[in-house]
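Milestone M4 deliverable, item 7.
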Amino acid sequence: MARDIINNLNWLSYLPRLVRIEKTARWILEQPDDSRHEIAREILKTAAQVRRDHKHGWDTSNFVDTLNQLCGRADAEIFAPYVKESAKRRERFRDQVAEPRNKQARAEGNARRAEWQSAADEIWSRHPEWTASDVARRIAKDRGGDWNTIRRRIARK
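Output delivered:
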């Protein structure tokens, strides 16, 4: 009896979704040039099987899974052109905007690190006993920047 109550509660929570799915499938079939007609027919057929099996008290989980997969296929067919266009736009953005900006930022960072390293080499030549933290604090004080970042980027030669 408890299992029947749980099954009925599951059915009551799933029924509104099933109704929406059927309504959407019927709408797809009304559209003359929609490429998802075959999927919509399969959805309606599977939804009818779900309703029939529930009416007889049989397990509907297999058909519900199939129904969800069919809905996923229908959605994928809708969004496929948008996904392709989005990928093209991302690729164009990467090639035209991101890559040149990344190269510029990389060059600026390399120049900044080379400047820090040359300053560190000069300081270490005068103060060989200093640690990387001491040298980084001096560079940060003289040239600006975060001493901890500078400390991680410089190396004693």
